[in-house]
Task: inverse folding
């Protein structure tokens, strides 16, 4: 629905230029209209802009020396905001929320009794329990006076108490309620750096760590730093997690697509990177960075080490910043696959100077602590002066939340053999990861058993991204309903079964192909019912539209 | 120091255009240089841009159809980032951090034994204790399994247990580790709306509340929505909290200054607003919003109700969005002053339709929970379609952190008479607020007793903003050291006493006047030593530079 508000705005502006100028002119003196027309007619200048952008830029020049300011409407909002889309929480979620309300006020009114949110990687919303050790440490840090009381020993594990004391000692004045250093508390960054070293076998510098409220603000910060205008481009995988397209749109840059190859399990081919880079350069785009999501979102593939080396070599050769989304590094399900950080790959190739940003989050992994909004980025290969600009940007928002900072340090340094919590920690972690692998397999098999559906294996991450061959009649019905065909399918699925998936359109896909993203996160006891509802729905849908 | 890196970048680009083009050209084909020159020579177009901006825009056009992308340097970063400044964590804090390291490695090496951070409103960093009730609820929500254990009753107050249960019940699946609704958990927004109604006497709609990670992200979101180009302006008080200037710079808009009148206790005159608005419009700026900070930061004044009515009337007449920074609403020290929210003022005038955004934060007030990064904005007077764009922007970052959300609800609904925690809550709160009032008075008196210093009363907020009449010799010495005169004073003060204040330059001031901002937050037992160190330093400084 929101998407269509944006569409309406674009139509409004593209089709009704005259009416729109007249309307705006109520609020401006007429003396400025001529300069506005001048501006619109600068046909000798490169056409860098979308029609929406350039019209509104004209409006912006026009809107001078007036009396009352025009009210805030879609026409007077920042057009970059209008252009930004975010499917993971788009129309489909609005419909789901409405259905959920209906179910609450009128139980039994739908052919299902609950909404299953498979649209977003939000494990605890679907019943996953938090890791006990992490939450014990957080509770003690929130209320350190517990550490002075005898009863606490009976309520908390000894190592959570020890860790809370260690964490508190790392904070100036033990103040968990104070703003920290703009990059995050130094002691916590030390812990994270040690965790990275243990993971990679190469040292990490705590001064390279920027703690963030989840991975998203880090991605926005990098886009803000790198994008100067629509002539700056960022190479992104298609399909991609729409944070990237949204952030690039908000910062006014150009999304330069490279396609993952579905036929080879969503392979990332360097030849495709080269082709798209050249094409963008031919259009006058300065490509500044390459986004690699590993393990893949929404595609679930885990990059092979050799492939990663090729990507690093490509970035080095072409002068690109490598933005490595590594938030699913703990989520590996394929026995023959292993996560390698891009930093480890770079170091193993002897490259210390390549500009590389690795994003990590507490929201993913086996812990799935989305609500805590913790994460970090490790920033290497930039000059001191550029780094100072990163620091300045981080400073403007003062610091990320301290609970999220603490949790990021715990994730990178969980209990070790011999700690009191180790057994429970290991069994919780192992239980979740093994269960996720089983759920992924069951859903993958279910999708592959459906008529016209093919689904690659989820080697990692939290998603499956099946492809659907939709009958022509269904595609036509979707056109009549003014929906993308996969959105039409997803809305019908939701209304019939309560299962929320995200249409492939939201992530990007090869034109003419249709997909949807489905998380593997529903609890295991719900999977059989999901599979059966999905199968029933799909059969009926295909029968309805069979040619 | 960071500021000077920015300066260096600007000089580099402004003075060395030819060298810089040659350097950039290593990475581009020569065929694009001519179009770049074309672009630089568009003298018929309105000169909207700073020299830095326009040069880099030219570069951006130039940087097309090349081979390797130019490396990330100051010259190739987003110029808006370079232009942004944030004094509260600027050069002075870097020097302080260095001194603190020196003190740790070499105690006794300085004429002081600790650094007193009076640069930022960060109460718990200076020893203020958190409110017990708030932290009890947070700890229980972090580790809900405590609620199943008998020992918990001995460790937590009964109302903190009841509140934690209530809060958990408001969360779908009681999942504190899940992403919430993009605007925040509905039940918590209900509580906040009820708190606003109790405060104002007018209803509040939970759907108007957007929970945020502190106030800063809300301010950024509004700037992102409203600013289309450098032709859009935002009216901001001078002096102002530099979040506003930084955010406007980052989003590419124009800061339109209105001056508070120091002679009348930092009065906000509508005649001044009109004058600056007209002047901006004459320059072709579309002024889109007015920022009012009440209680004032850095100035500490509390607006009178009649003055607020004038401001509302002005915004209505001129079509401006009113951005009301009300994060210090609990921090009132003057017996004859009272906080009135702008929403209450609007409603009391019968205006329901004026676009108004009120920012609130858990970082300030008597609680000062900066590290929790909680806050909200209440958004009223916008159309449904525009509101959907707010929602979309909030969605791109998924949600604010849940602990911060919970805390925001507690702050707007603290214990009530009859609750087990009420007495301790009231005494903690009252103790902090009374002590802050005493500290403000002592520091104000101390400043006013210094030669050439005048200081208005802190009626509210957490700061004093004394004015210093610096001797000409000191101003000359500062020029020689390439510092603003107040920055020179502040650095000398820091090096002599360990007291960190922020020079007035960072907030803006009438040209030719010098100020600094000093928080009233050091614990009360430290105030006498601060006053005596400050007085000694000031006497010596004035004697050194006496004409």
Result:
């Amino acid at each position: 629905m929101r998407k269509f508000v944006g569409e309406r705005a674009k139509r409004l502006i593209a089709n009704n230029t005259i009416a729109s100028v007249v309307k705006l002119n109520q609020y401006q003196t007429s003396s400025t209209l001529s300069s506005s027309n001048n501006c619109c007619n600068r046909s000798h200048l490169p056409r860098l802009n979308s029609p929406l952008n350039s019209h509104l830029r004209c409006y912006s020049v026009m809107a001078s020396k007036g009396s009352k300011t025009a009210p805030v409407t879609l026409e007077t909002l920042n057009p970059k905001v209008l252009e930004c889309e975010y499917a993971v929480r788009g129309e489909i979620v609005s419909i789901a929320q409405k259905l959920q309300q209906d179910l609450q006020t009128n139980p039994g009114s739908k052919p299902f009794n609950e909404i299953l949110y498979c649209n977003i990687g939000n494990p605890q919303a679907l019943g996953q329990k938090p890791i006990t050790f992490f939450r014990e440490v957080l509770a003690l840090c929130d209320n350190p006076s517990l550490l002075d009381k005898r009863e606490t020993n009976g309520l908390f594990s000894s190592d959570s108490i020890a860790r809370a004391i260690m964490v508190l000692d790392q904070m100036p004045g033990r103040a968990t309620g104070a703003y920290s250093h703009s990059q995050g508390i130094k002691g916590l960054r030390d812990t994270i750096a040690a965790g990275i070293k243990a993971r990679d076998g190469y040292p990490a510098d705590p001064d390279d760590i920027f703690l963030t409220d989840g991975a998203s603000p880090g991605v926005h910060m990098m886009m803000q730093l790198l994008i100067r205008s629509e002539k700056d481009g960022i190479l992104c995988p298609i399909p991609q997690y729409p944070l990237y397209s949204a952030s690039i749109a908000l910062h006014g840059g150009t999304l330069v697509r490279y396609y993952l190859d579905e036929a080879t399990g969503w392979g990332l081919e360097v030849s495709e990177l080269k082709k798209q880079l050249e094409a963008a350069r031919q259009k006058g785009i300065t490509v500044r960075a390459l986004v690699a999501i590993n393990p893949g979102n929404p595609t679930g593939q885990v990059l092979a080490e050799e492939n990663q080396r090729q990507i690093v070599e490509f970035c080095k050769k072409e002068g690109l910043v490598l933005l490595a989304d590594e938030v699913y590094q703990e989520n590996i399900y394929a026995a023959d696959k292993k996560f390698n950080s891009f930093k480890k790959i770079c170091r193993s190739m002897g490259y210390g100077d390549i500009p590389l940003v690795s994003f990590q989050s507490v929201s993913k992994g086996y812990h799935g602590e989305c609500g805590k909004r913790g994460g970090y980025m490790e920033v290497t290969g930039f000059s001191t002066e550029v780094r100072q600009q990163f620091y300045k940007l981080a400073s403007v928002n003062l610091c990320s939340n301290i609970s999220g900072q603490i949790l990021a340090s715990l994730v990178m340094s969980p209990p070790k053999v011999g700690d009191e919590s180790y057994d429970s920690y290991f069994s919780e972690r192992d239980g979740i990861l093994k269960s996720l692998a089983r759920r992924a397999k069951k859903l993958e098999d279910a999708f592959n058993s459906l008529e016209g559906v093919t689904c690659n294996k989820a080697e990692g991450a939290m998603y499956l991204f099946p492809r659907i061959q939709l009958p022509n009649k269904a595609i036509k019905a979707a056109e009549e309903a003014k929906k993308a065909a996969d959105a039409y399918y997803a809305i019908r699925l939701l209304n019939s079964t309560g299962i929320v998936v995200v249409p492939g359109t939201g992530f990007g896909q090869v034109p003419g192909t249709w997909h949807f993203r489905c998380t593997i996160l529903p609890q295991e006891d719900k999977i059989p019912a999901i599979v059966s509802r999905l199968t029933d729905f799909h059969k009926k849908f295909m029968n309805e539209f069979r040619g």
